[in-house]
Amino acid sequence: MAEISSQERDYLPGMGKHYLLPFYDVLHRVSGLGRVHQEMIALAGLRDGQRVLDVGCGTGNLLRATGKRHRNVELVGVDPDLKMLARAERKIRRAGLTAQLDRGFAQELAFPDASFDVVFSSLMLHHLETSAKDEMLAEVRRVLRPDGVLVLADAVLHDHDHDHGHGHGARKRGASGELRVQLKDNVGDAVAKRIAAAGFTVEPTRTLKLRMFGEVGIEVAKVH
Questions:
Q1: CB 105 within 8 A of CB 80
Q2: How far apart (Å, rounded) are the C-alpha atoms in residues 8 and 114?
Q3: Where are the domains of the chain?
Q4: Which helix or strand (DSSP H or E) is residue 150 part of?
């Protein structure tokens, strides 16, 4: 696991608090997020020899699932949380897979231009402040090859969810704090519009309902 040099940034951990990390994979299982990951992998249209980056890879669930379905792709994951990456490394190794796991930030990916065929992002975008979301998408577009694909999943809120505090953020965090503020960017089709504004052609959103925490929208976008 490589630790890359980077300007230190504040970040919101996967469960909101570092001490909740042991429950991260439990939540993954009970929420049904694995089904979202399988759909993301199918939509990516991966082929042997392609290079895949998971931005905000957490404990490696999406990378592991990708490697199990596509043994001949190159797996790379980036996350700011070293404890998450340590768990990811163990899980990927136990699955008989290999992956490059780097500590880094979505807003400043330490990879050359046009170096990936597919970029994944699963329930991570809403952890970023508004300006950082645009920075991340610009970086993703930069590291994707001209025919590259972004497959991004994130929470979907409806206007009444956001206004009355009954949406994803409310159930997850008591309708308060940093996450709720950042989820305001996920109302309606805002995520798809943000991706399009970053220079992608975006397919119609696929929506899946989790057993917990409401709806997840899956965006498939190609560089144009």
A1: yes
A2: 25
A3: 21-158+174-223
A4: strand 144-156
């930069």: which residue's tokens? 142
The model's pLDDT over 28-45, given as tens digits with 9 standing for 90+, comes to 566 678 999 999 999 999
pTM of the predicted model as reported, rounded to 2 decimal places: 0.82
State residue 32's pLDDT score.
Answer: 74
Tokens linked to 203: 């397919």
Question: Contacts by 67-75 with C-beta closer than 8 Å and gap 24+?
Answer: 67/92, 67/95, 67/97, 67/99, 68/95, 68/97, 69/41, 70/41, 70/46, 71/97, 72/48, 73/46, 73/47, 73/48, 73/49, 74/49, 74/50, 74/100, 75/99, 75/100
CA separation, residue 85 to residues 11, 33, 66, 76, 99 (Å): 15, 19, 17, 11, 11
Q: How far apart are CA 44 and CA 55, in angstroms?
A: 15
Given the structure tokens 């025919």, which residue do they identify?
Answer: 147
Average pLDDT over residues 191-213: 93
Domain 21-158+174-223 annotated CATH 3.40.190.10: no
CB atoms within 10 A of CB 190: 15
Query: By three-state DSSP, how is residue 130 classified?
Result: helix
3-state helix, strand and coil shares in percent for the chain, rounded to the nearest 5:
40, 25, 35
d(CA 125, CA 190): 12
- Beta strand 215-223 with 200-202 is antiparallel
pLDDT in tens, 164-174: 443 443 334 44
Mean pLDDT of the chain: 84
Phi, psi dihedrals of residue 221, rounded to the nearest 5° = -135, 140
